[in-house]
Give the backbone structure.
Amino acid sequence: MSVRISCGRFVNNVTQHVSVTYIGSRNISGKTMRVKAPAPKPAPWPYKTNRYTMLHRFFDRTSARLDENSKLIVVEGPVAAGKSKFAQELADELEMLYFPEANLDMIFTNEYGYDLKQLDPQLPETCRSFDLLQYTVKYSQYIDALAHILSTGQGVVLDRCVYSDFVFAEAMCSKGYISREVRSLYYELRKNSIGELLRPHLVIYLDVPVNKCLENIQKRNISYEKNSPDISYSAELLVYDWSHEGEVEVIVEDIERINFNRYDEQDPKFVDWRYSREEMFAYLRNKYSDGKNFLMTYLNVPRFNIPELLIEAEDAKLALEIYDNAPGNEYAPGYNSSMGDTSILFKSKLPLRETLPVIERRAR
């Protein structure tokens, strides 16, 4: 006599139900005002190097790592408003991971620290680095942030994010830096990809008058700054007048007062983070950690009617040769003896995912 059991039912019984508003529940707490130490939880999962497979889902529950501080917070505001400094201090107080503003240095700096933008003078003009990649790097960074939260349980503070990037595309188009065709491609990329992400829990907007922003921009001396949808529907929004820098502790107190559990299943706020079954958390964790390379393919939108974005085959061949001969680019990361890599003979695996390095923008 044989007995057959549905695998789906077995998984459901093992993983069990979790609270519908698990991630969105309770209040964020800062380390200064915290009454007691956080409850112990499993060690962070090394998502950058280890796969999270179907088998792991039975023994490594995602919800076991999530607590009241497992949130995604975004700091927004005008250029030179002081977002980076504030975001770093906020992340430190909330014991979250700080992600600097996504920038092209993150994708043009290889694993050995070599800045590939140095090669621009050697490249054909059609192959030089360009700012349409700004959306790509913000999209990539946001995936890394989601993977970090779901794999480690640690919250993330982002300096700007992919959801506000369109304002730069609009500004550049209105001033003639990009054509209407490039603008249309930008929105096609955005439409094709942004629905794959989970929107943030909280957005903090630092409001600064235009004249103050211009003054700060001149002080920062970053050349491209000098010359160049309502998020509150799905996330909490805090707005502050940042003409004169305030105290982070005061804002942390405001954050601690937010009850992330006051919304029901039908409310649009935090809808991206409300799931009733453990396997949905496992699915999302796998999607953003192991599945990042696939998610990046959503940006592969062919458009052949934009001449300034087309590259001749000869130019592309020359560019690839120049990039491949750059220090650290000859072989895959970990296999370049010229850069000090060792034990190459005993290595057999390529990197699991392309995780962006944490690099602040360089002044140019």
In short: The chain has a mean pLDDT of 83. The chain is about 35% helix and 5% strand.
